[in-house]
Design brief:
- This protein is α+β, with helices and mostly antiparallel strands and 383 residues long.
- The chain has helices at 5-43, 45-51, 90-93, 96-106, 111-123, 138-146, 171-174, 182-187, 206-210, 212-216, 253-263, 292-296, 300-307, 317-320, 330-340, 375-379; strands at residues 56-62, 69-70, 76-89, 129-136, 154-163, 177-179, 201-203, 220-226, 232-239, 247-248, 268-273, 280-286, 348-351, 354-357, 360-363, 371-374.
Length: 383
């Protein structure tokens, strides 16, 4: 049956409208895709080029400079010094043994340092830099740079290392720093990513330990391009960290040196306090040790000598030791008794040489006793 002309015209119009909507939708989709493709290929081309070919962007932390510690007169008692070191990238070196042999002909490197470096290179990926030796002189660095063509994979770097200018005098007060250990991580409730940096040093004892967070500062970072195996391709940008705070103690390093010298090598402790302000001017413990040994990596022999010393040089006797107050406490009780009117300055007491309490005799330092004595007679030797 033949369809009416009117129906054919209506059907044609409907199909035309649908085609128009469909065509417009297709054009819109194509336009969006084209705009997106242009954005990716033109505007963001550099960014996606870095992400192509299995490359990726990594962020590496930059350790900040550690804050300095000064005495009451502004003299540095914990400082930072430049630390020249030589590092090797095994992947770039080729024959590691041959390159190290050439290096030892140019600069003096201890055999134990070479052994340690070889062991570390065996554990790490071939593209990770490994420190061969530290604390080189500027002359050594110059020699290495001059012979760079003959030392593939070898480079000289400069960093910072802690130094204690007054050595043993302030070892127990300032303390020392050392690399973060697994034990440190287990006992410190601190999520600072700096603690994960290999060989990053934190305070172990003394003020370095107690004021660690203030002295540490905050990390910077650098954005680097690395390939699929983690090898650094290039540095993209860098933001330096915030240095740790500089701190000032009440200690007078000259007075500390005098007190420490007076104690000598005896097992003893002494403290000097400003009675007006309560400032600790000197806090000495004897015998003492050189904290720089721990920063640089103390030898087994040196550490054994410290731990086996019967006078315990590692112990801060002035704050860690517990001792009976003895006659020094006489002044405290005497002043309290005088202030309350329990006794008078001229009142006498009899000292037979001992005091019996609960059936037990506690002897005076003078076995024969002091006889009849005033409060001044008993306390004068302590003033």
């Amino acid at each position: 049956m033949k369809r009416p002309t009117k129906d054919i015209i209506a059907s044609t119009r409907t199909i035309g409208r649908r085609s128009l909507v469909l065509g417009a939708s297709q054009i819109a989709i194509m336009a969006v895709l084209s705009w997106r493709m242009r954005s990716m290929q033109v505007e963001h081309a550099d960014e996606f080029r870095l992400l192509a070919e299995e490359n990726r962007i990594n962020i590496r932390l930059l350790p900040p400079s550690r804050g300095l510690i000064f005495d009451r007169n502004g003299v540095a008692i914990a400082d930072n010094e430049q630390n020249y070191r030589v590092v090797m990238v095994r992947e770039d070196a080729g024959d590691v043994g041959e390159v190290l042999a050439r290096l030892t002909q140019i600069v003096d490197i201890a055999p134990e340092d070479l052994t340690r470096a070889m062991e570390e290179m065996a554990r790490r990926s071939p593209f990770v830099p490994v420190t061969i030796a530290e604390r080189l002189t500027w002359e050594d660095v110059a020699k290495i740079n001059l012979n760079t063509p003959a030392l593939p994979g070898i480079s000289a770097e400069v960093g910072q290392s802690r130094v204690y200018p007054w050595g043993a005098d302030l070892a127990h007060v300032v303390g020392y720093v050392g690399p973060v250990s697994d034990y440190d991580l287990s006992r410190i409730d601190d999520q600072d990513p700096l603690l994960q940096i290999p060989k990053f040093q934190i305070g172990k004892t003394g003020a370095e330990n107690k004021l660690e967070k203030l002295l540490r500062g905050s990390a910077g970072h650098r954005r680097i391009e690395v390939n699929a195996v983690g090898r650094v391709m290039r540095e993209l940008d860098r933001r330096e960290g915030v240095s740790g705070a500089d701190l000032q103690l009440t200690i007078d390093h000259n007075l500390q040196h005098y007190v420490q010298a007076r104690l000598g090598n005896q097992s003893a402790a002494a403290s000097v306090i400003d009675c007006q302000t309560g400032d600790i001017l000197a806090l000495a413990s004897s015998p003492t040790f050189d904290p720089n040994l721990f920063v640089r990596g103390i030898s087994v022999a040196d550490y054994k000598e410290l731990t086996e010393n019967p006078y315990r040089p590692l112990a801060a006797k002035s704050v860690q030791g517990t001792y009976p107050p003895g006659s020094t406490f006489k002044m405290v009780t005497a002043l309290a008794a005088l202030e309350e009117g329990v006794i008078t300055p001229d009142e006498t007491v009899y000292c037979p040489g001992h005091q019996e309490i609960a059936g037990r005799k506690f002897h005076c330092w003078k076995r024969a006793g002091h006889g009849h004595a005033t409060v001044l007679d008993l306390t004068e030797p302590m003033l």
